[in-house]
Specification:
By secondary structure, the protein is an alpha+beta fold. It has a single domain, classed as Double-stranded beta-helix, CATH 3.60.130. Helices cover about 20% and strands about 30% of the residues. It contains six helices and 18 strands. Strands 1-2-3-16-8-18-5-4 form an eight-stranded mixed beta sheet, with helices on one face. β4 and β5 form a beta hairpin. The radius of gyration is 18 Å and the shape is globular. The protein starts with 6 loop residues before the first strand and ends in a 5-residue tail after the last strand. The mean pLDDT is about 95. The structure holds N-oxalylglycine and manganese (II) ion.
Length: about 280
C-alpha cells in the first residue's frame, strides 16, 4: 500500500510557520512522515498539522518521538490519567475550570523559568470558539535577532535574563509548594539553536523579570526596546485555529501570545504536550 505523502506549505512570506496536510499522526511508525514533520518543524519554527483525530494516548505517543515529555507544575490542570497532558481549557467540572483558561496571554516561551525550558509544545485543538476568536500569535525570534543592528547584537552578547513564574492566573495562584520548586533561572538573551545553529532572541514577557547585572531602569529600557523590535509584522504570524489543528512550536526560536475570547459564551478546549529541552546556550 502506498502511504499518503505529507505536504508542507509555508503560510508567511518569510517562510515562518508552515501548514502540513496529508498527515495522520496516529501513524506512529511511519518514518517518512515523521522525518518530513521534523524537518518542517526545524525549517519553519512553527507548524500546524491539520485535520487530526487524536486520543490523549496518541498525542503523547507522537510527541514523545521528539524527546521526553515534561509534566507541567500545574498539577490540577493536567488530564486525569495522562499527566503529560496540560489542559488549556475553559470547560468546567464541579464548579471549577478543568484546565488553564488564560494560558499565555502575553508574549512568552514555555517553561522559560526552568533550568531546561521546553524544546517544543504541541497544542491540539479539540474545540474552538464558534466566532473564530482565540487566535494564537507567533513571533519568529531568529528573524528578529537577525534584523537587530550590529551594535545591538554586540550589546546583547553575554547578557542574561532572569525568568521567574510568580504571576497569578484568572482563578488561582501557584501554591507555596509549587513556587518552592520554581526559584527561576537566568538564561542568555540570545541563544543558539543546537539543531539548526541559528541564533535567536530569547525573551519571556512578564516571566522575564530583568537583565542580570543592569540597573533596573537600564534593564527595563533594554527589554522594552527588544519587545518593540519584535512587535513587527515581518516576524509575526497570527494563527486562526480550526478544530483538529495540532500546532507544534519550537520554543528555542519563537515566542507566542494567546489572544482573548469570550469565555462566557464559547468553549475553547485544547490538550498540550511539552517536549523537554536543553539548557539554553
Ligand atoms: C500554551 C499557550 C496559547 C493559546 O499552551 O503554552 O501559551 O493560544 N497557549 O492557548
Ligand atoms: Mn505558552
Amino acid at each position: 500500500m502506498q502511504l499518503q505523502t505529507v505536504q508542507v506549505k509555508p503560510l508567511s512570506e518569510s517562510g515562518f510557520f508552515a501548514e502540513i496536510t496529508g498527515a495522520d499522526l496516529r501513524r506512529i511508525d511511519d518514518e517518512a512522515q515523521f522525518e518530513a514533520i521534523k524537518a518542517a518543524h526545524l525549517a519553519h519554527g512553527v507548524i500546524v498539522v491539520r485535520d487530526q483525530k487524536l486520543t490523549p494516548k496518541e498525542q503523547i505517543a507522537f510527541s514523545k518521538r521528539f524527546g521526553p515529555l515534561a509534566i507541567h507544575v500545574l498539577e490540577e490542570q493536567l488530564l486525569d490519567g495522562y499527566p503529560e497532558i496540560l489542559q488549556v481549557s475553559n470547560k468546567t467540572k464541579d464548579g471549577r475550570y478543568v484546565g488553564l483558561p488564560d494560558a499565555g496571554r502575553f508574549w512568552h516561551t514555555d517553561q522559560s523559568y526552568e533550568e531546561r525550558p521546553a524544546l517544543g509544545s504541541l497544542l491540539y485543538a479539540l474545540e474552538i470558539p464558534a466566532d473564530g476568536s482565540g487566535d494564537t500569535w507567533f513571533c519568529d525570534m531568529a528573524a528578529a535577532y537577525k534584523a537587530l543592528s550590529p551594535a545591538m547584537k554586540t550589546r546583547l552578547d553575554g547578557l542574561r535574563g532572569m525568568h521567574i513564574y510568580n504571576h497569578s492566573h484568572e482563578e488561582f495562584s501557584l501554591s507555596d509548594d509549587q513556587s518552592g520548586h520554581l526559584p527561576g533561572y537566568d538564561h542568555p538573551l540570545v541563544r543558539t539553536h543546537l539543531e539548526t545553529g541559528r541564533k535567536a532572541l530569547y525573551l519571556g514577557g512578564k516571566l522575564l523579570k530583568y537583565v542580570v547585572g543592569l540597573e533596573e531602569a537600564e534593564s527595563d529600557a533594554l527589554l522594552a526596546e527588544l519587545y518593540a523590535h519584535c512587535d513587527d509584522d515581518a516576524f509575526i504570524y497570527r494563527h486562526k485555529w480550526h478544530q483538529g489543528d495540532l500546532v507544534f512550536w519550537d520554543n528555542r526560536c519563537t515566542m507566542h501570545f494567546a489572544q482573548p475570547y469570550d469565555s462566557q459564551r464559547y468553549t475553547r478546549h485544547m490538550h498540550r504536550t511539552t517536549v523537554m529541552g536543553d539548557r539554553p546556550v
